[in-house]
Design brief:
single chain; about 0% strand; mainly alpha
Length: about 325
């Protein structure tokens, strides 16, 4: 046996106590070596958090503004039919003036919302061109009562470019074409009603189809070709929905214009419900003709125009 003092090397040339001490002090040494990096990283995190606190994310403000615009649009949409129904049922005085003020306010809300979104020139041009085509089509088919392509073109604009563009196409087409047919107190109502047709089409196009059922291994969804990251809109999967909406929206257009004519010209509300129903019954053939014409124009224009407009939208980055 060798004479070994405590603290000298052991069997494998290592000092047991020194190894234990090394194990005990190794984390401390590592911590001391990494301390500046930790402090530096923490300081960077604090600076980032301070910057985030001073400059909140932009998307929160955008979401809040978008929700406010949608709420204001919904209020303006509901206000006009509500005032029509209330004035008709109560037979109130000055109904024509009151309803005109409400519809003008609704139009102002939509035009202000479109202007505040700061659209680019490339976003405005398709809306203006489609509105001009709708106005020209209304003038072209003037000899045939209520056989007009305005509703069909407004629906196509709403499906491809969204609810705001759909509303603007319908409203501007009514305003521009009435320079030929004649401006009057009916112009704001036609602008509102045709704009509402395009607006509803934009809302309908925003509804996604049902997600595909999970198949394959581990419940994963299998796609042919590229994997689809966005759900297909319902109207692209079932085009017949657009034709049904086209016919129903024309009946809605007729309901609004007939209600305005009852309040402003016929004053049929004074005769009670029978007088109101008589006006709607007399206007029903014209409203049905308008609906059939819209379906015919959609059958001829919807598929080719939607394909070309979506290609333009993708090419010029109007997503």
């Amino acid at each position: 046996m060798t004479n070994r003092e405590p603290g000298e090397a052991g069997i494998f040339g290592q000092n047991p106590q020194s190894s234990q001490l090394g194990e005990q002090h190794f984390p401390a040494r590592c911590a001391s070596q990494n301390a500046p990096k930790v402090v530096e990283r923490n300081s960077c995190d604090m600076k980032a958090s301070d910057a985030a606190a001073q400059n909140p994310p932009v998307w929160h403000n955008r979401d809040h503004r978008a929700k406010s615009r949608i709420a204001l649009e919904a209020l303006s949409i509901c206000a006009t039919p509500a005032i029509l129904v209330v004035c008709t049922l109560t037979n109130a005085d000055q109904t024509a003036l009151l309803s005109l003020v409400v519809v003008l306010a609704s139009l102002g809300v939509f035009f202000a919302a479109y202007e505040s979104s700061a659209p680019r020139l490339r976003d405005i041009m398709p809306t203006v061109v489609l509105a001009a085509l709708a106005a020209a089509g209304r003038i072209l088919f003037a000899p045939i009562p209520d056989f007009k392509p305005v509703s069909a073109i407004a629906i196509i604009a709403g499906v491809v470019f969204g609810r705001k563009s759909g509303f603007m196409v319908g409203a501007l087409a009514a305003l521009a074409s009435n320079f030929f047919f004649g401006q009057g107190p009916w112009t704001p109502w036609q602008m509102y009603a045709w704009g509402l047709v395009g607006y509803g089409a934009g809302l309908l196009a925003a509804i996604p189809a049902k997600a595909p059922k999970p198949i394959g291994e581990n419940g994963l969804v299998e796609f042919r070709g590229e994997q689809s990251l966005r759900r297909e809109p319902l109207v692209e999967k079932h085009a017949v929905i657009i034709y049904i909406y086209g016919f129903v929206s024309c009946l809605m257009y007729g309901f609004i214009l007939n209600a305005w004519s009852i309040l402003s010209f016929y004053h049929a509300q004074a005769s009670g419900l029978a007088g109101v129903l008589l006006v709607y019954a007399a206007a029903l053939p014209f409203d049905v003709t308008h609906g059939i014409a819209t379906v015919v124009f959609l059958a001829a224009l919807y598929a080719p125009w939607r394909r070309k407009l979506k290609r333009i939208k993708s090419k010029y980055g109007m997503e």
